[in-house]
Each structure stands twice: as structure tokens, then as C-alpha cells.
Amino acid sequence: MSLDTATVRRIAKLARIRVEEPEIATLQTELNAILGYVEQLNAVDVTGVEPLSGGAQMAMRLREDVVTDGGIADKILANAPDREGRFFAVPKVVE
Amino acid sequence: MAYSLQGATGAWEIVVGLEIHAQVVSESKLFSGASATYGGEPNAHVSFVDAGFPGMLPVINRECVAQAVRTGLGLKAHINLVSRFDRKNYFYADLPNGYQISQFAHPVVGTGVVEIELGDGTIKEIGITRLHLEQDAGKSMHDQHAAKSVIDLNRAGVALMEIVSEADIRSPEEAGAYLRKIRQIVRYLGTCDGNMEEGSMRADVNVSVRKTGEAYRTRCEIKNVNSVRFVMHAVEAEALRQIEVYESGGSVTQETRLYDPARGETRSMRSKEDAHDYRYFPEPDLLPLVLDEAWVAALKEKLPELPDEKRARFRDDYGITFYDAGVLVAEQATADFYEQVAKGRDAKLAANWVTGDFFAALNRSGNTIETSPISADGLGELLDLITDKTINGRIAKDVFEAMLETGDRARKIVADRGLTQVTDTGAIEAAVDAVIAANPDKVAEYKSGKDKLFGFFVGQVMKAMAGKSNPAIVNELMKAKLG
Amino acid sequence: MSFLPELTIAAALDGLAAKDFSALELTRAHISAIESLDPQLNAFITQTPELALEMAGAADAARAAGSAGPLSGIPLAIKDLFCVEGVRTTAASKILENFVPPYESTVTAQLKAAGAVFLGKANLDEFAMGSSNTTSGFGAVTNPWQRNGSNAKLVPGGSSGGSAAAVASRMAMGATGTDTGGSIRQPASFTGITGIKPTYGRCSRYGIVAFASSLDQAGPMARSVEDCAILLGAMSGFDARDSTSAERPVADFRAAAKRGVKGLRIGIPAEYRMDGMSAEIEGLWQKGVAWLREQGAEIVDVSLPHTKYGLPVYYIVAPAEASSNLARYDGVRFGTRVDGEDLIDMYERTRAAGFGAEVKRRIMIGTYVLSAGYYDAYYLKAQKIRALILRDFTEAFAKVDALLTPTAPSAAFGIGEKTDDPVTMYLNDVFTVPASLAGVPAMSVPAGLDAQGLPLGLQIIGRHFDEETVFAVGGALEKAAGFSALPAIRAGGAK
Questions:
Q1: Domain A5-43 CATH assignment equals 1.10.20
Q2: ipTM of the shown complex
Q3: In which element (H, E) is residue B125 found?
Q4: Is there a catalytic annotation at residue C79?
Q5: Where are the domains of chain C?
Q6: What residues of B are in contact with residue C244 (Cβ under 8 Å)?
């Protein structure tokens, strides 16, 4: 599978990364090199193999339902690039 | 008669499925220790985990899982002992991580079924496809500032149950009944408060229309509808819109729409114009959720009696009508109140009083069962006075009103006001004689065949005795005297 | 008194205990080494000399009060992927250029509790994505080693390149690293030091900026196996804030490092003998085999048939997770923002300006392999082969106690080399990635020099949660190799 320029633009859009027109061709070449490299996986027979999604082989621990956090709005907002009072602020969104 | 909408080209059937988002009742959030309480100062109920800060990791809340399992059991659904969490990836200002942790491929609860009752008394089964746990997003507000939207993350990370129905719903009424039924079940279970005004419950409504016998046509999803009434309206409005599109030669495009209650119509959501590609994949920060069978069994053991079972029991054990039983079990608190009143008393009399004068009084005064000025014990005392013939039914209504006004107990009111029923035959006989003596014309009319006047004579006696006489004795004596 | 930065951690702890010198003296010696060397090496993104002196003072006070911790007064470099409360944490990305975390990672909190001194935040590949430390948004790191007769600048490896360079050049006694596909082991090999990636779940990931969640593991880098054992003892342990953290006791790694290999069965996986591998690396590997055999280990040939698929699997799984993990850098709650016409435009400009080229490439590959229509062919398939790779290890560990392989296919290369296409760079990780995918512990120990005088490491891979055996084998190799070569650029050195 090889990416065309339209797909490169679509992926950039999905990933919310602005890509200028002159960068498209370079990106296309680089991404296709990576995809070409992983193509070798097609040779592996995985019939009947269960996928492995995580690094740890155990069941999940559950925590007790207790309030142990929050009440730190100042710290939550301290690194905000823009804020209005105790809210984060972003360019206006039209729903 | 199956519901249909009449278009220019004939009848259309509507096909509806609901995705109900129900906020889980818990102290803390699904994956963080911040408070799950509604409201609060902006960003006060937020941890670094909820705000998606670098290096922050989710840790699941046991109680939220238990609540989902309880709900699944209440929906008579299959509990999956192994389930998983996935990431649903999309960018939005109030979605801090850029993904929502949800259960896509392996939900904690599988298929189930609920029964709904329609206006004509028929019962219909609606299939449950699945129930899964997921995080809520934060809240974007667009009207606080001229050029900006502002974000409050208090809700971000609160546990939601998404309850997905089969496309079994065929009318606005069924949609409303289904939503009410789910709301009733989760409130009984205590797994969601069902408060739609505060957004604890909201529904995404999938609507399509078709001609009878056809396969499903394209559906549209109406997002975030927040009342039973609006769900019913939205179903109808969207169905009518689709019929119009088809009948004017167009085709319906699958899209996300919003219901505008003010205009009574749905409109396309601009912010959702991008065809979404959510790139679901297993959440690598979490491990599989493995439930112990014994733990699930213990939850099942402690499950409260659910409305359907309770209703049947009320009908069978108390001998009341299925309809009355339905009214009484609508809310857990009402059912409990009724059972307290009915305990050791005439259960039918109790049902009549609770569904009649008592409900009317609550409605009039804007009270709920929880804030009722009359307790179950207090109402029971009034019923006891009727049953032991201390007062008659007529006086009981006055005593009830006095209880509402004064807050006094029934026995005290009866004593203070001397309302005890007169059962002394001598006194009643004297009053009967007096009434007959005072109305010779009417007695003549009665004797000439005007039977209806009997009520008049009884009424006069009751009036003369300030309503306190035992009506049965009055009847008996009057009948004897008039011959 | 010996030149303090040359000491191992073990020796420094003895010196501190014997009151030969104070933690303040030890720390000042390292701060002055940083002042003189870091302008050349760029191993630190943020230096924290004031914090270091404060911590050293506290360590001296604790020692005087008889409450010294296991690392009291030991100056360390902290990879700038670990959040340290109140200290700028960048992940070497412009998008976090001014981010000051109001919280502490579990690993650094444990190091603080043990009495360690933080000299600063070490440079790395941006978001730990790289094998050369050239993708950093704060400039490349220079390897303190140079080829014989050349002063050409070499890479220190990556992504923990700043940590490796700081330790190798004696600017720090040890460092924290993180390893997702080789990010501790490969730079350790390139700079002649020791580093271990413990079992997935051994060190908490809480507070470490995430790259690929199912692979990321923190670990120590130091100048001896014993020093790594001391550091890992302090860094590891169960943490309720990380759902993937293992609820297991932490063993005495320091004792394990001295255990020896007598009676151990060491596997030599045939598939690590790759086409085009240099004779030097092959020769060193054979030497390693001989050293272990001489010390009483039994050498067993084993097969890990899916080894060659490790790298392509990794380059699907890691970018996929990264594309999602890095979605939070959107200019809304923290980090850099570039204004735009609307919300989406703001996102796109922010992320275009904030991320470097390699990070963007990986986000885009990751986005693609998860996208509708491609998930099964790429991501799901990769997960299945990952399961086969784990099975390879499980089967091998039924026969042997540990595996011995080279750490990297080459010695350090020049800054600017291997940049023709991304895949050439990725091949650096070919020997380290399989252990990451399986989640098993693996260590790199310096074993010798190549013909150009550059260090080469050997890798020891162990069973899940059996770091003790890895340390035992590492200790034996270290003893036999007697690696004593020194980098050209170092504190107290000729230059």
C-alpha cells in the first residue's frame, strides 16, 4: 500500500497538523518508505493468533471510590496559554 | 394499530434506536480521584489526570464498574467477565486527552431486554444491544465571551454508562416509554440519578423511516436530547423531515443532527461536519477488566426489587389493579411509601388513598414523596380511623385536609374537633324522625314512587349530625321508617 | 582525595558514609564539570544547580542526623521526560518549551525520597522518538567519545542521549532514562556505560511524558552494573497511580549483581546474527559467550524466529500509540499555542510549529495505521505478530535463564549521518526492540571497543521480573570485560 498526496493531506487533517503544500511530497516519500519497510509483515502467518495489546500480562486493579483529588484549579490553569477567569479559553466554536 | 406517519405517498413506518448516556452515581470519577459531584466552581473538580496533563495515567474506579454491572443485571443483560477499554480519538476543546476512554470492541455488558408499557396497556419488549463504560467530556460554553469559547473540565472524566438499544422502537410514544423505563430502572438501582435537567441522562436518537416491509433506510443521529418530551418530539420531527426529503425525490444523508426545541425541528451539526474516523484502539494505559464471577453474583444478590417485579407483587399480594400497581411503583420512594401505609391495613383502601387524595395533595402543594407533609405512618393512622369506624370516609377527607394544613396527627384532629362517628342508634333515629317530620311533602313524593329522594333524606340526616353519623346505620333506619 | 566525578555511585556512597567528602562537595564538583563540558556536549536542556545544592545540603543534614537514604547526596541527571515539580519539563519539544509541571513523577519522587541530588534535566530525542538525539528541539547532543584521531562529532545514541553523555563524561554519576524500543540500551552502548530497561511494569510510568504507553519503561544509566542496581532499587516498585505497575516486591539487585553465572543457562539466539553485521560486533559477542562460559555458565543455542519482524511491528505499534498520546498537545491547557482563525486552525498551527519533523512523521504514520480501513492490515496484524514475538521469548526462557546478544548493530555514528531516510535510522534498534515488545528486562553492558576506539555493548535479556539474573549476568560480563577505556571529553580529562 502506498500513500497518494490526497491521503497525506487527509492524515495531516486527522492528526491536526498543518502541512504546507511544498512539504507534502517529502512527507509522502518518507511515509511511503516506512510503510514499505513494514510491508514485510505480510509474510507472517497469524492465523489463530490472539493480538497482544499491552506490555503487562495481568488483570486490572480497581481503586476504591474515594475523592482524593481536585480542588486545584489554580494549578490546573497555571500553564494555560489563554484563560478567562477560571475557565480555559479557545477561539469561539460554532456548533 | 401500528403507528405510522402519513405522507403524500402513503404510510411510513419509523425506526428508532436510542443510545442513552447515563451518568454513573459515584463519589469520584471513572479514572481519577476528583469529585464526580455536579456543579462547583469552574475547574474545581479536576485532577491532572482529567485535564490530560503529560504523564498522567488512568486508574479505574471499582464502584463505577459495580454500577455498570448492577445496571446490566437490571436490564437482564449478559455480564461480560472480561471486557476492555479503547481510545476513541478526536480533537475537541473540551476533550483534554484528544481521546475518550470508552469500551468499543468489548463492552462490560452485552445483550439484554426491557419491557415497556404503552398507553393502551400493551407490553412491548425492546432489545438492549450493549452497555459500556466511558468518560464524559468537559463543557464548552460559547456564550460567555464575544470572541472565545470557554472550557470547564469539571465533568471531564465523570463515568457514563452508554446504554444502546436495538432499533426496536417504532413510535415517538415507544421512544418516550423506553427512555422513561430505563430512567426508572437506573433510579431503582441507584446507578444514575436520572436527572435530565442537569444532564445526568441524555439520549442520542437514531431515526430512519421506511415503507412497511422494506429494509432499513439511512438513519440520522440526533445528539444530546435531554428530556423525554424532546425525545418524542425529535423522533417525530426528524421522521417528518426524512419523509419530506424522500417524497420530494431527495435522499437522506447519514449525519449528526441537533434538536432545536424552540423551533421543534432538527438541524445538521456544523461542528460535526468532518466525517469522523475515530481510530479506536485498545487503551494501552489500562489492562483488561476481569470480573470475578462471585463478585458479580454478590452484586446480583444485593440488587433491589425492580419495578416490573414489584408491580406484579403489588398486584398479587395486595390485590390492587395492575394499573394502580404501575402508578405506585413508578418511583421507588412512592412504592416504599405505599408499602408502609398498606402494611397490616386494607391494601386496596391504602392504594386508593395514596393514588387519590395523597398524590393530588402533593401535586397541589408542589411536594414530592420526600418532602411530603404527611408521613406514611400519619396516613396509616387516618386509614386506621376509617377501618375501625371511628370516622367515616366523608369525615376522613376533612381530617386529611386538616392534617395538611396543621401538620397534626389524624387522631388528634378527630379528638380536638369531635369528629368521631356517631353509631348510637337512638341519636340517629331521633335525627331520622326529625327529618321525616320536617319534610312531609317530600315523604309523600317518595312514597308515590320518587325513589331518588332517598338520597336527599340521608343527606339531611348527615347534615343534621355534622357528617359524623355512620352512613350505614342512617341508611338502614331511614329505609325502615320510610317503609 | 580522588577526583570526585570519577567515582562510581557505590564508591561515592562509601566516601559520603566515611565523611571523606560531603554531598555539597560532590555536587559542586559535578556542577563545575557541567559548566565546563556542557557547552560542548549539550547534554542538559535545563540545569538546576540551585536545586542541586539545596538537595545536597539536605542530604548532608540527613546524613548528619543519621537518616541518610540509599542515594543520599548522589548527583544525577534526570531525563527531561520525567516531570519534576516546579522544574521546566520539555520532552525536548518546542511544544512544551515553557511547561512547568505542578506535580512529580513517581520515579523522581522515589529518587528524591532516597536522597538523590538532581543536577538538571537531560536532553533527549523529541518525545523520546529517535536513536541519535538529533531530533531534540533543543539541539543535538554530542557523544563524549571520538573516533581515534578524529574530532568529528558523534551521536550519543537515543533517545536517552543526554543522560548517556552526562554519565559517560562524568557530569553526573548516574541518570534516569526511558526505553521504548532501546532508548536506554542503545545510548548506553554508544557511550560505554551500563543501562537497564527493567520489566514493563517494574517502574511506574506516572509523571513520565508518554511516548508509547505499552512499551515505555524507565530505567537507570550509570558507569557500573552495581550502580545501575543501586539506582533501580530506588526507582522501581509498585505504584497505585499506574494501572500497568506490577504489584511485586523489589529484589536486592545489588546483591544479585555479585551473584555470578555459575550454573546459569545462557541462550544465544541465532536470529541476532544478521546479514551485514560487522565482524567486530560478531567477535565481541563471541568473546562475551566465552567469558560467561569461563565463569561457569552453560551456553545454549536458541531460536527467536520472529526477531526480524520486531522492528516493523514496533514501527506500527509505537507510532499508533504516540499519535494518540500526543493528541493532548493542542495548545489549550498547557504548552505552546499558535493562534489561528478558529479552533481547528489553532490546533493545526500549534502542532505544526510545536512538533519537529520526526515527531510529525510518527504521528502521521500512527494516525494512518489506526484509520478506518487500515487498522486490521497494520495495527491488528502488528499486535498479532507482537504476540508471536512474546511467544518466542517464552519458549526460549523455558530452556535458558537469560539471552546474550549485541546491543546495537554499530558503534556511534556521526551527527548528520543515517538521515537519508527514516528507516536507516530505525535499524539502530533492531536488537533492542524485541525485548521491548515482549516487555522483558534487558541490559547493555560495555564490553569493548571497535577498531576506531568506540565502545560497543552487549545485551542481556531476562525473564519477566527476573532482573536479578540480568544483573548477575551483567556483573559477570563486566568483570570479565574489564572495560576501562575513557571518552575523549570528560571531567578531569585531558581536554
A1: yes
A2: 0.96
A3: strand B123-135
A4: yes
A5: 8-259+462-481
A6: 284-287
> Which residue of chain B is at minimal alpha-carbon distance from C380?
B281
DSSP 3-state assignment of C253? helix
Which class is C8-259+462-481 in CATH?
alpha beta
Report strand pairing: B148-152 vs B139-141.
antiparallel
Q: List the end-to-end C-alpha distance of chain B, in Å, as a whole number.
A: 55
CA atoms within 13 A on the CB side of C480: 24
Listed in sequence order, the DSSP H helices in C192-244 are: 225-235
Chain B within 8 Å of A18 (Cβ-Cβ)? no
Chain A positions touching C330 (Cβ under 8 A) are: 16
Q: Are B61 and B157 contacting, i.e. CB atoms less than 8 angstroms apart? A: no
Min distance B57 CA to chain C CA atoms (Å): 6
> Nearest Cβ partner of A56 from C201, C344, C371?
C201
Decide if B151 and C332 are in contact by the 8 Å CB cutoff. Answer: yes
**pLDDT per position in chain C (495 positions), as tens?**
579 999 999 999 999 999 999 999 999 999 999 999 999 999 999 999 999 999 999 999 999 999 999 999 999 999 999 999 999 999 999 999 999 999 999 999 999 999 999 999 999 999 999 999 999 999 999 999 999 999 999 999 999 999 999 999 999 999 999 999 999 999 999 999 999 999 999 999 999 999 999 999 999 999 999 999 999 999 999 999 999 999 999 999 999 999 999 999 999 999 999 877 888 999 999 999 999 999 999 999 999 999 999 999 999 999 999 999 999 999 999 999 999 999 999 999 999 999 999 999 999 999 999 999 999 999 999 999 999 999 999 999 999 999 999 999 999 999 988 877 778 788 889 999 999 999 999 999 999 999 999 999 999 999 999 999 999 999 999 999 999 999 999 998 754
User: d(Cα B480, Cα C105) in Å, to the nearest integer?
Assistant: 96
Where in the sequence of chain B do the CATH 1.10.10.410 domains occur? 425-482
Burial tier of C262 (Cβ tally within 10 Å: 0-12, 13-18, 19+) = exposed
Å between A74 CA and nearest CA of chain C: 10
Spatial separation of the C-alpha atoms in residues C47 and C30, rounded to whole Å: 11
Q: Phi, psi at residue A93, to the nearest 5°?
A: -105, 135
CA distance C345 to C343: 5
Model-level pTM greater than 0.90?
A: yes
Cα-flanking dihedrals φ and ψ of residue C162, to 5°?
Answer: -65, -40
The SS3 assignment for C77 reads strand
- H helices of B332-439, in order, are 332-342, 347-353, 359-365, 376-387, 393-406, 410-417, 425-438
Closest to C81 measured CA to CA, from C267, C211, C257, C191: C211
Chain B nearest-CA distance from C268, in A, is 31
**B428 vs B14, B157, B422, CA distance in Å?**
66, 73, 8
Count of CB pairs separated by less than 8 Å, A with C? 167
CATH number of B425-482: 1.10.10.410
| CB C362, CB C319: distance < 8 Å | yes
C410 as an active site residue: the answer is no
Q: Of the listed C22, C132, C159, C323, which one is catalytic? A: C159
Q: State the first-to-last Cα distance of chain A, in angstroms, to the nearest integer.
A: 37
List of chain A residues whose C-beta atoms are within 8 Å of the C-beta of residue B60: 60, 62-63
C422, C361 Cβ separation under 8 angstroms: yes
Residue showing cell 506490577: C246
Neighbouring CB atoms inside 10 A of C19's CB total: 10
B33 vs A91: CB contact, 8 Å cut-off? no
Q: Tell me the domain boundaries of chain A.
A: 5-43
How far is C284 from B201, CA to CA, in rounded Å?
66
Q: Is A14 on the interface with B (CB under 8 A)?
A: yes
